[in-house]
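Onboarding guide, step 5: your first structure request.
Type a short instruction followed by the sequence, for example:

Predict the 3D structure of this protein.
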Amino acid sequence: MKQHNQKKYIMNNINKRFNVSFYKYFYIMNPQKIYNIILKKFNLFNVLGRVYISYEGLNAQISIPKKYYKNIINFIYNLNIKLNNVLINRSSNTKKSFFNLKIKLKKNIVADNIHDYINYNRKGVYLKNAQEVNNMFNKKSVTFIDMRNKYEYEIGHFVNAVNIPFNTFKEQLKNIIDFLKIFKNKKLVMYCTGGIRCEKASSYLINYGFSSIYHIYGGIINYVNSAKENNLPINFVGKMFVFDNRLYEKISHHIISNCHQCKETCDIHRNCRNKKCNKLFIQCDKCAKKFDYFCSNDCVKKNL
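The system replies with structure tokens like these:
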């Protein structure tokens, strides 16, 4: 089925889907074998999304038809002993997220550009639920570190969290030691969307002598789910950016960002219509009409 027709079919299909994500750092002796097993199973049960496989583990964001949900979860648990009862984050947002399946063999399950030896058995202390996170949040001696890209942080984050202001995880890790040196002897709580980036970053910091590192188990997704289940305050404001068709999940009613063109309050991400630019930026409906969904006058002129 061609991509356009596939998207149309998925959008018009009334059958419910669950959006889930999971990751696990563990040694995979034969990534190609795991690739073949997952590809066959996911194609058979119409699982969509993306899966990255490497010698260091698995990273997946997938959309599962509701009727096959338990089947696929059990398949994941039994794929490898290291995945038995791995944390699988299920989103409460059931909007259609993916329209095809991409499984890739990668050097790393999240691009890091780390050349130093890192012992991934030495990592930050997990904060396993919302109560533990909120306890840390309420301590003045603790600083929350947002390990997401600045365009993710822009539309939503923990109140007063520090963001390492770069657009890729590679750039963040390249600069993180110098950027956080003033916090080296302080308690840090790291977080990201699902936990994969801050888990690797916590190991990297510990390797460079940072001693009091914590990170949120399962990231923002698991924190919000845990807070809702236990009727606890949610200290994340705004929207959580997601890397699929939805672009975001709404966590609170707050709009904390601004249109990049008119500076009015706005949190709508768009990609510039200039295909050579394709910049991801925030643009309100008024400016979208004025600039015809381009990010700048230069891109408008280049398209004439």
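Each response can be followed by summary notes, for example: The chain has three domains: 3-105, 125-238, 258-303.
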